[in-house]
Every structure is written in C-alpha cells, then in structure tokens.
Specification:
heterodimer; A: mainly alpha; MetI-like fold; 14 helices; about 80% helix; globular; B: about 350 residues; alpha+beta; Rossmann fold; OB fold (Dihydrolipoamide Acetyltransferase, E2P); 2 domains; 5-stranded antiparallel β-sheet; about 25% helix
C-alpha cells in the first residue's frame, strides 16, 4: 500500500510531506529552544533580543547544580540496580520453573500503569516507617521501581530472541549453566542491555511524579528543582533546561546509533 | 555403546517417547527416521541430556548417564540451523568445546587448525559466521563437533537446510569422516533417502515408538507394515485379502474387490487380511497377455506425467484401485494418453506381501 502511495504521488512529494510533518511535530521544541535565548525575563515569542543569561542562571544557581548532580547519580545507580535485578528476573521468568513467576512478572511491570502519585505516597509512608524520608535510598528505590519495567521488557525480548539451538550447542559442548550465561547468553543480550540502559536513563532523568513525593531539599532531582523554580519564577530558565534536555536526548540517541543502531534496539521493543 | 532402556518422555499430555529400547554399537552410523512428531528429535534430546526422561535409563559406554546433565556427557552435536555462535569467529566457534574443557590455548590452536583442514576450511579461522555460506557454516559445525573427540556424535537434521547439491556433498563427507574416525554417530532425519544412504542401521519411529530397526537394505526390501512402506515412499501399497494358496503362489485381492493378484508365497502370511505392494518400476505395460503367465491386469490410463527418465502413469484398474507405473521413456510400448486402455503385467515375485 505504501509502495502504491509512492508510485502515485512520486517520491519527492512523499519526502516533502514527511519533512513537513516532522517540522510540525518539532514546533513546540523549536519554540522552546528559541525562547531559551530570550534576552527579556518574559516568556514571550518571538523573543525581542537574544542572550545566554538563562543558561548562566542555571549554572550559577546552587539548586540547579544540585538537581543536576542528583539526577545523574540517581539515574546511574538506579539503572545499574534495575539491570541486575532485571537480568535475574528475566532469566527466572523466561526459563525458571517457579510457579508464581508470572505474578512476579506482572508486579515488576506494574509501576508502568500505576499512578505516580500512588507510588510516591506509598513510598513516603514506607520511608516514614522505616526511617529515611527524603534520603537517597528511598529516591533510588523509587527510580528503580519506575525504571524496572523498561529494563525487564528489553531483556526479556532479547532473551526470547536467542535461538534455542545456541543454548543447546553451548550445553552439549561442555558449558555449565554459569559458563553458558557468561560466554553465550550475556554477549547475545547486548542489544537488550543497551535498550534497557537507554530507556532506563531516559525514564529516570525525566521522572517527576514519584520523585516529587520522596525527595527532600538535598536530594531533589532536576525535574523537581525545575518544578519548584517555576512555582516561584516564570522565566525562560525553564526553556533553557528543556533545551538542554532536548540536546541530551539527541546526543544519547546518536550515541546509541553509533554503538548499536537504533533500528536494532528499537526492533526489540517492536517484537515484544 | 549407547543403550536406552524403557525410555519415556511426556510433554504435558503428549507422549513424545514411549518406552523405547535401543542399542547402538560403537562406531555405528545410526539413523532415526520418522515423520514430524514421531519423537525422534526428543529421543536425540534424551541421549544428549537436554531433557530428563520420565522413566527409563540412558547408558553411554555402559555407564548410567540418565542423571548426568548435558554439559558433562562428553558428546557433540550438529544442528539443522548450524547454531554457530554469532558473536564468535570461526576459530572461537570451533574451539568452544575445548575452551569449556580448559584445554590450554596452544593445544586449542593446533586442534582447531586440524579440524578445519579435515572439513576443508583451512585459513578460515578469522572469518565470522555471517560471512559464510550455509554449506561452510555447516562444515564449521562439523569441525566444532569433531574437535572435542566426543563419545557420540549427534546430528539433528544436519542437511535439511542445505540445497540438493550441497546436501549430497555433505552427506558423502560426513560418511567418509565417520568411517575414518569411527565415532559412534546418531542422526535424526525425516528424509528417507538421507537415512537409507547414510546409515549402517536405521530405526523408523512413529508416535514415540520404534517401529522397525534394520539395515537400510532390509528396511527397503522388507518393510514391516504399511506405515513403514508408505513412509519409505513406496507406491501401490494396498491392504488386501488372501483368497487362495496353491503351488507356491498366493492369490490376494486388493481392498477386497477386483481381480486377484498373484504373489509368490514367502510363507509369511496365513489366510485373511494382509498388506502388499508392488514397485512402480516393476510393472510392465504390454500389448497382450502371454500364455502361461499370471497377473495381467486391465485398466485405463488416468494421467501421465513426464519425469525425465521415466513417465509416471496412473492407471485405474477398476473398483477404485489405482496403480502407479513408472514406464521408461526409452522402451515405451504404446501411446499412453489418458483414456487409453492398457494391459499391465506384474511378475508374481514383485508383488510383496508384508
């Protein structure tokens, strides 16, 4: 059907259409990027003058610097934890014989659909009982929970796509279950791990609802910092932060493309 | 060398292997033949150690290995889809088994080189599986299997994915290598040509059970029942009824109706129901019946298909009995268009009762 469309309208027309659609979709982002360079402290568009002052504002304000560091630390650590837990979970779900494993599977995926507020309040209550409200532990736990579904899904899809005969070959040629995991399964899971890391980082860095409930002043993540700032001031600083986010996302995608090809990584999710 | 006693395996409600007893001698090239779902692959899996049997014992070299996991049985396997590790190059693929055993690197290098030269892939150490053709990948698979000096070599439909020319080539190579090395080899296939041309002995399986074990020649000339006959691609298999017995000859009526056929009495059947067949190439189409000879059957040509060396002619003998005849194009007797009335002749010794 698409081929017919191409033939009927001609290659160039389709290309033009696609470009127009992409442009349309990027308009909000473009507006934000342009606004971030607005010289005046009013969020108007088009800007009347251009300046970098809002970016400097970001660099100078301690709360933004703190938020930035916290987000990186929390993102990195929760991704690592989610990868380890996700790896074990994926193997147990895929190849294990524990009777309740599909229930555990569903539970691990549940934070995808539960309202962030619910999870946040729940964790807050847990933290107040256990001690450690607002501390890094509860924030990291929150992020692991939010990020786990993505990691688990990626790993499971990757695991399912490993040819069964490769496992048999490993076994028959003398690989114990541990060696088989290290020499055969793990290397073949690289796309899944890559996708998992990608989605985990992106999710964690953008996570807002749950974080809002569990962070304290010192453990604020960047989205929370941004939110609080916006409550007090409405100036192009938020546009600056957003522009940096957009830039970071583009860089990560380029990096992933370089390392493994987005098509290959994304195909994982499609097949699942 | 390999002995199976009362081996059974179920998957849920399905019986995959049903109380199989089997003994395979050292150095034998043994074939497991059967249609899909006959249990042959599961049986191979039980010998390999991929599955644990529900009951029964697996002996390898007189040692009970039923509880021994696959990675400790010292076997090797070749797969239908080659199963080369895509993230390893040819050298690492072939040397995988040795590496798992902890063999020193120097020795691995020598042995891999040796194995690659046996399969005629010298110098391919640094290539990657995706760079190789199907035939080359399968030869790497063979090298990988040989290099570990396994007790038993298992082949799971190793030639099915190759095209005809390659298949024949690989078949000869496998046979030759097996002969030279003397490794006990068990392979699984659904292709009866493959099984019969490769094996020293063949076991035909159906529904999880072994139906017949014999040398290829024996199976071909003396199929045990109609399932085996039909699976071997034998045409003209009929069930019939013995109606008369006299002077070393037996009269049998196909499907209970029509002219009786005359067969040689081999002393196998009593009275009553039996199965018999006649090979298409053993049927002659003649002008007229000759005095003193038996088995002239009258029929009408339904269809003629050109098959190169011979014509495949389907003849209806009446009463719904159809005969398949292979008539050599060189010695064609009459014009054989559909609708032609013909007389077919079968020598009684070519009517085989099983």
């Amino acid at each position: 059907m698409i081929a017919r469309l191409f033939r009927h309208w001609g290659r160039n027309t389709i290309a033009l259409l696609v470009i127009l659609i992409l442009l349309f979709l990027s308009i909000p982002s473009l507006v934000i990027v342009v606004s971030s360079f607005n010289a005046s402290p009013v969020l108007d568009f088009p800007p009347r003058g251009l300046a970098l002052r809002w970016y400097l504002n970001l660099a100078e304000r301690p709360d933004f610097r703190l938020g930035f560091i916290n987000t990186l630390v929390v993102g990195g650590i929760s991704t690592l934890i989610a990868l380890s837990a996700g790896m074990g979970g994926a193997i147990a779900i895929f190849r294990g014989s524990l009777p309740g494993r599909q229930v555990i599977h569903a539970m691990a995926l549940s934070t995808l659909v539960l309202p962030g507020v619910l999870i946040g309040v729940g964790l807050l209550m847990l933290a107040s009982k256990a001690g450690g409200v607002g501390g890094f532990t509860v924030v990291i736990i929150a992020h692991v929970l939010m990020v786990l579904p993505f990691v688990l899904r990626s790993l499971l899809v990757s695991l399912e796509n490993i040819d069964e005969n490769l496992e048999k070959a490993a076994m028959i040629f003398g690989a114990s279950p541990l060696k088989k995991f290290y020499y055969v399964t793990l290397p073949m899971l690289k796309p899944g791990i890559g996708a998992g890391i990608l989605f985990a980082l992106v999710t964690s860095v953008n996570e807002f609802a749950v974080s809002l409930f569990v962070v304290a002043r010192s453990t604020q993540t960047l989205p929370v910092v941004l939110f609080n700032y916006t409550m007090a001031y409405v100036d192009p600083t938020i546009a600056a932060v957003s522009t940096l986010y957009i830039l970071a996302t583009i860089l990560v995608v380029l990096l992933m493309q370089r390392l493994g090809g987005m098509a290959q990584i994304l195909r994982l999710e499609e097949r699942g | 060398m390999v002995r199976l006693q009362g081996l059974s395996k179920n998957f849920g409600a399905t019986v995959a292997v049903d109380r199989v007893d089997l003994e395979i001698a050292r150095g034998e090239l043994f074939g497991l033949l059967g249609p899909s779902g006959s249990g042959k692959s599961t049986l191979l899996g039980l010998i390999a150690g991929f599955h644990e049997p529900d009951s029964g014992v697996v002996f390898i070299e007189d040692k009970d290995v039923t509880a021994v996991p696959a990675h400790r049985r010292n076997l090797a396997m070749m797969f239908q889809n080659y199963a080369l590790f895509p993230h390893l190059n040819v050298f690492d693929n072939v040397g995988f088994g040795l590496k798992m055993k902890g063999v020193p690197r120097k020795i691995i290098q020598e042995k891999v080189k040796e194995a690659l030269s046996i399969v005629r892939l010298e110098g391919y150490e640094n290539r990657w599986p995706h760079q190789l053709s199907g035939g080359q990948q399968q030869r790497v698979g063979l090298a990988r299997a040989l290099v570990v000096d396994p007790k038993v070599l298992l082949l799971d439909e190793p030639l099915s994915a190759l095209d005809k020319g390659l298949r024949d080539e690989m078949r000869m190579e496998i046979k030759e290598i097996q002969r030279k090395s003397g490794i006990t080899t068990i392979f699984v296939t659904h292709d009866q040509n493959e099984a019969l041309s490769l094996s020293d002995r063949v076991a035909i399986m159906d529904g999880g059970k072994i139906i017949q074990i014999d040398s290829p020649r024996q199976i071909h000339s003396r199929p045990k029942n109609s399932f085996v006959a039909r699976f071997l691609g034998l045409q003209n298999v009929f069930s019939g009824k013995i109606v008369r017995r006299e002077g070393g000859l037996v009269w049998v009526v196909p499907s209970g109706r029509g002219q009786p056929w005359v067969a040689q009495d081999r002393g196998l059947m009593e009275q009553g129901e039996c199965t018999f067949y006649v090979r298409p190439e053993r049927i002659r189409i003649v002008d007229q019946p000759r005095e003193g000879s038996q088995n002239y059957l009258y029929g009408v040509v339904k269809e003629t298909t050109y098959q190169g060396v011979y014509n495949e002619i389907r003849i209806e003998l009446g009463e719904g009995v159809h005969l398949m005849v292979y008539d050599m194009t060189e010695t064609q007797v009459v014009g054989l268009d559909p609708g032609t009335r013909v007389i077919t002749h079968i020598d009684p010794k070519d009517v085989v009762i099983i």
